[in-house]
Amino acid sequence: MVKRYPVSTGAEDVNQRTTNTYDYDGSNSSTRNLWGRLAAVTVPNSVTEHYSYTSAGLLTSKASDFGGGIYMVPTVDYSYDTEGRMTQMVYPQYGHLVPPSSYAMYSQRLTLNYSYDSLGQLQGMTAGSGPGTQLVSSATYNAAGQLLSLNRPNSVTVDPATELPSGSAGLSAETFQYNGRNQLTRQTFLYSDIEYRFSATANDGRLTQKKNWNSTEEENYTYDSLGRVATAYTTGPEWGLSWVYDGFGNRLQQNVTKGTAPSTVQTVNAATNRLNGAGFGYDSNGNMTDWTTPSGSVTASYDIDNRMTQIVTPSLTETYKYGPGNLRVRKSQGGTTVYTVYGQGGAVLGTYTMCTAAGTSFLCDARLRVYFGGRLILNGWTGVKPDRLGSPDFVHGRVYPYGEVSGSVTEDQDETFTTYKRDVYTGLDYAQNRYYASGWGRFATADPYRASGGPASPQSWNRYAYVEGDPVNFGDPAGTNKAAPDSPDVINGCIKSATTWDELACRQNGGQQESGGGGWSFDPMTGMPAALQAAYDSYSAMVTEAFIDRAAKGFKITSTIIFDDDTTSEHSHEGQFDQVKTNLLSLFQAGLDVAGLVPGIGEVADGLNGAIYLAQGDWGNAALSAASMIPIGGQLAGGTRIAKRFVSHESALIDLAKQFKRRGLNSQEVDIMRDWAKEYGVYFRGPEAHPNRNFTIPHVHIGPIDHIPVRP
Questions:
Q1: Is 185:194 a contact under the CB 8 Å cutoff?
Q2: What is the pLDDT of residue 463?
Q3: Where are the annotated segments for Disordered (predicted)?
Q4: Chain-centroid distance, C-alpha 70
Q5: At what angle do helices 603-616 and 619-629 cross, to 10 degrees?
Q6: Is the dihedral angle over the CA atoms 327, 332, 333, 337 positive or is it negative?
Q7: CB contact set of 644 (below 8 Å; sequence gap of 6+)
Q8: Which candidate, 140, 105, 108, places its Cα nearest to that of 122?
Q9: Which residues pair with 165 in a beta bridge?
Q10: Between 493 and 464, residue with greater pLDDT
Q11: Residue 1: Cβ-neighbour burial (10 angstroms; 0-12, 13-18, 19+)
């Protein structure tokens, strides 16, 4: 249970309490598991999510109970092959109104089936049982694993009796071309043909031109010495813009240089980087509470986690509620509530409204999304044509570099800019952890992800600026850190595939997935890296935390050897190395068996790395490869490798601390984290408790991360 207090000396806000349940939650929405896996997360007055797993730790179902007595709790089900690849995903059931006052639940649910080629690459997708309706076929890839072509629909005919695909979908070819640096240079699909051009001499990876061969509009871009977009203009007379920034990277002016385009002039408080002027207001946490739109003034309210919970305009009031992972699950306005159901990787699977008939409440008016390899291809059964940053083909007008549009945004096409969802009445874009205001080119709240700021990029210390002033070449899918283009992670909000959410890999690697599929995937429920979560879950009974202690501390502490649970003996330094070598070699030989039990953790790769380290005499990395190859009681061995892998040891340590805040540390992990903090010069305090502040749980402080619970 996580309790939240508005002030350190005040009472708990029970409406912000989050309850985590493990093993079994006593409901019919999850199955009992024996490894301490998360069974449910309850967010008061918002949603309770229930989870079930395979014996290897793969999620088999996720049920989202929104309360209110909804008939048929929306549930997403998953199936896998023996290699741990998803072979089927089944969307929730929903219903529709039957005039004049009854209802019917659709007995069928959307079922997507996935097929793979001999290399394990996603190759096709069908909807329905049997041969079904072919939605994607003949996907091809280059040697770097980048998508070259596929056949997919521009729209899908659905059966009005079931609202599911029927018959042929009418597939058309979509193609992608890349240059020698693996940058996307052209993508074509039906009436969309976009070319991306880069400088032959600048060597900075920035786009210089974007040509829409369908509309013939050609955009040109220039940049200032700090890499911020300075001008954008069409070769023809359509439009042109230039920008002025201050020393902190705040956008002060957007000036029209030709044609028709939106312009803005704004001033910023140099001490806080907040907008000045009449109509703007902020709370003490730096959240924008007041601003003005063409329709009048807007007032916003926030919860204790600085998430926007309500906006009030002259004509309406709209409220928002959030679930695990800061994902917005409810939007209510004027008696209408829209619910959003997410897949296990954080991708939006569908939005629904609440209908009531014959005394029964149920979800209806479904607007489903379909992805292929994490790339959105269908929204409401209409084809989507995202550009390299994820912005769809906006049919109501032109989209300018910072996200303003020339036409009006409607509820049925509110995906206008990168991966964001635009709220029609406020003009703000929902960006998962924050809200983005395209009219000002900045976020409405400060960046909650502290590690996204660093001395390597001084502009990153501005907690409001959008992608450090370069919206042409970067996106920010999670609303916390800019991410480079030409990556599936960017195109889909750090969603690499239908089953994986590589948020940390996106942040640390500028949006690029590590070569060979490396990087960390966060478990969408617990916030822990998914591979290590599965490792911890599946093998915590087998592997002793004492080994982690030894691995993390360079074998300074004697401990039990892996699998030798009945042997507890003291070893010399050389003896420990010999024992580790023996166990590592045996684990490497068993790597294929382990890989079959825990798909997706990269056991074989870690085993190979371990063998190489051994051959080189690198005992430290060999031990860590062993610890990562065999699932372990926590994240720490993998965390050590992250600290070695990334440039900033401090940032890696703080990232781990953020994740531990969600699930807590045990006493041994506290000792290891204290040692790391001392080695890397990171502030560490605790364990301690504050009975006089109603915070009796023992906890530690690591860097900027406060009150990390210490478990017994």
A1: no
A2: 94
A3: 1-26
A4: 28
A5: 160
A6: positive
A7: 621
A8: 140
A9: 158
A10: 464
A11: exposed
In angstroms, rounded to a whole number, what is the distance separating the alpha carbons of residues 606 and 609? Answer: 5
pLDDT at 90 over 90: yes
Which one-letter amino acid corresponds to residue 228? R
Could you report the per-residue pLDDT of 143-187, keeping only the tens digit for each? 988 899 999 999 999 988 888 998 778 899 999 999 988 899 999
Provide mean pLDDT across the span 98-105: 80
Neighbouring residues of 692: CB distance < 8 A, sequence distance ≥ 6: none
Q: Do residues 145 and 161 lie in contact, with contact meaning Cβ atoms separated by under 8 Å?
A: no
Q: What is the chain's length?
A: 712
Average pLDDT, the chain: 75
- Give how far Cα 554 sits from Cα of 563, 564, 580, 621, Å: 19, 20, 12, 10
DSSP state, 574?
H
Q: Is the peptide bond before 687 cis (omega within 30 degrees of 0)?
A: yes
Q: b/e for 519-557, b at 16 or more Cβ within 10 A?
A: bbbbbbbbbbbbbbbbbbbbbbeebbbbbbbbbbbebee
In terms of pLDDT, which residue wins out, 454 or 14?
A: 454
Other CB atoms within a 10 A radius of the CB of residue 456 amount to 8
On whether the CB atoms of residues 545 and 672 are closer than 8 A, the answer is no
Give me 202's structure tokens.
């600048």
Question: In this structure, are residues 504 and 655 in contact, taking their beta carbons and an 8 Å threshold?
Answer: yes
- Measure the CA–CA gap between 195 and 186, rounded to whole angstroms: 4
DSSP 513-557: PPGGG-S--B-TTT-SBHHHHHHHHHHTTTS-HHHHHHHHTTS-S
Helix (H) or strand (E) holding 288: strand 288-293
Instruction: With CA atoms as reference, report the closest residue to 488 among 91, 122, 87, 119.
Output: 122
Please state the pTM of the whole predicted model: 0.70
Q: How many CB atoms lie within 10 A of CB 589?
A: 11
Q: Name the E strands within 130-247.
A: 133-141, 147-153, 158-159, 164-165, 171-178, 184-189, 192-198, 207-212, 218-223, 229-234, 239-245
Domains of the chain (ranges; CATH) run 14-517 (2.180.10.10), 530-709 (no CATH)
Q: For residue 589, what are its two tokens?
A: 């030989």
Nearest-angstrom CA–CA distance, 524 and 521? 9
The confidence score (pLDDT) of residue 692 equals: 57
- pLDDT, residue 535, reads 37
